[in-house]
Task: structure prediction
Amino acid sequence: MQRHRRRRETQRSSATSSSGFTLIEVMVSLVFLMVTSMALLQGLELAFRHYSLAQNRWKATVELWNRIEELRATHSPRGEPFQIIPDSRPLYRTLLTDPRLGEHSGWEVLNSEK
Result:
């Protein structure tokens, strides 16, 4: 009889321990889910910040390019002339900068006499 009773107790204890999740397992999985979600949100925020920065630089570059084309079309050359190839037309140098592009924002425009 004692053997029979022990078998039932072990069957009951093994049946109850294997069904469902424990509170600890649920809490650990929730913490893991929260940490993963936070990392994903931080990555998205960083991606959006870099996209915004790249978009601002692109706009500034397009504006500078338009200014360069305007300089070439309308302004007469100024400054000291220099020649890249001997016996060619002299070129004149103009430097354009834009603070939105950071420290490497200098664009050198070479213009020749018309």
Summary: The radius of gyration is 36 Å.
